[in-house]
Amino acid sequence: MHLSETSEDVIVPVKLAQYEEEALVSRSQAKSLTRRFERFQTVVVDFSDIEQIGQAFADEMFRVFANAHPGLNMVPVHMTAFVKAMIKRVQNPT
After folding, report:
1. 31 burial class (0-12, 13-18, 19+ CB within 10 angstroms)?
2. Rounded to whole angstroms, how far apart are CA atoms 52 and 13?
């Protein structure tokens, strides 16, 4: 993780959750990535070099984890259209 000077914010490359070139599809991968997020006020989630994510991965990060930590601001950046659509789908399931 890349820590800012204040440690209130952090930039997290999503590639950290990947082992080699495996697909990011599971809840356990998302849980591993978010394990220390609650230490920060804002987490910039950097999707650089990530073409797609699975629904379970997105749901765990952007619905389950986000709902459990309402004071934490997660800001996804550098998303492909697929990743953006998957996140939107789990945040607004209707």
Report:
1. middle
2. 14
CA distance 93 to 91: 6
Neighbours of 23 (CB within 10 A): 13
Residue 3's pLDDT is what? 44
| Cα(27)–Cα(2) distance, integer angstroms | 23
Q: What is the pLDDT of residue 7?
A: 64
Q: C-alpha distances in angstroms, 79 versus 6, 8, 36, 70, 74?
A: 26, 23, 22, 22, 14
Beta bridge partners of 11: 2, 44
pLDDT band at 17 (very low <50, low <70, confident <90, very high): confident
